[in-house]
Amino acid sequence: MAVLALLGLVTFGVVGWVRVATRSTSDNLPAENQTVIFPGYENYLNRELYYITASGTSMEPTFGDGDVVIWVQVDPTELNVGDVIIYEHPTYPSHENVAHRIIEVRVRDGVYGFRTQGDNRAEPDKYWVEEELIGLVIGVIYQAGS
User: Fold this and answer.
1) How far apart (Å, rounded) are the C-alpha atoms in residues 117 and 102?
2) pLDDT the model gives residue 84
3) Band of pLDDT at residue 37, cut at 50, 70 and 90
4) How far is CA 101 from CA 12, 14, 74, 122, 137, in A?
5) Is the pLDDT of residue 3 over 80?
6) Is residue 75 a contact partner of residue 39, using CB atoms and an 8 Å limit?
7) Rounded to whole angstroms, how far apart are CA atoms 57 and 83?
8) Concatenated DSSP letters for 76-124?
9) From 27, 91, 119, 136, which residue has the greatest number of CB atoms within 10 Å?
10) What letter would DSSP give residue 44?
11) Interval 77-117: pLDDT, tens
């Protein structure tokens, strides 16, 4: 059922295909769109899937401007260093949501906090993500030419 939901998302939003892999700058992407579910995240396909369109370059080469990011809601206890999360910007509430990679996890008085950094950034973000957490990125629909 979850696979049908993902295929529905792919055919509803864009034409593509599913491939379990990671993207690097050396990948030769075809002219068509390509959908990638990150390795290890297949177990999240039984959850409700959400998607947003990425803007900006802070997560290149993992994904970039115009790519569609697939995510699921998770409990903070499910997250680990290396996961890419979506969260509300903690210091600019009116700012669009941010998707960055977790580089450090802390637990204080039972509250999980995550230090993040964009894959295309030299420095970590200056804040900790706590209650701003929205979800876990499990895949990307790469747009042709991206």
Assistant:
1) 7
2) 97
3) confident
4) 28, 25, 15, 13, 9
5) no
6) no
7) 18
8) GGG--TT-EEEE--SS-TTSPPEEEEEEEEEEETTEEEEEEE-TT-SS-
9) 136
10) G
11) 999 999 999 999 888 777 779 999 999 999 999 999 999 99
The CA distance from 23 to 108, in Å, is 35
79 near 105, Cβ under 8 Å?
Answer: yes
Domains of the chain: 2-21+32-142 (2.10.109.10)
3-state DSSP assignment of residue 10? helix
Residue 144 corresponds to which tokens in the numbers above?
């042709």
pLDDT at position 53 over 70: yes
Joined tokens for residue 146: 């991206």
The two three-digit tokens of residue 64, written as one number: 């970039």
Place of tokens 């977790």: 102
Q: Quick check: 133 and 85 in contact, CB under 8 A?
A: yes
Measured over the CA atoms of residue 131, residue 136, residue 141 and residue 143, the dihedral's sign is: positive
Q: What is the pTM of this model?
A: 0.76
User: What phi, psi does 18 have (nearest 5°)?
Assistant: -100, 135
Q: Which two tokens stand for residue 32?
A: 């068509």
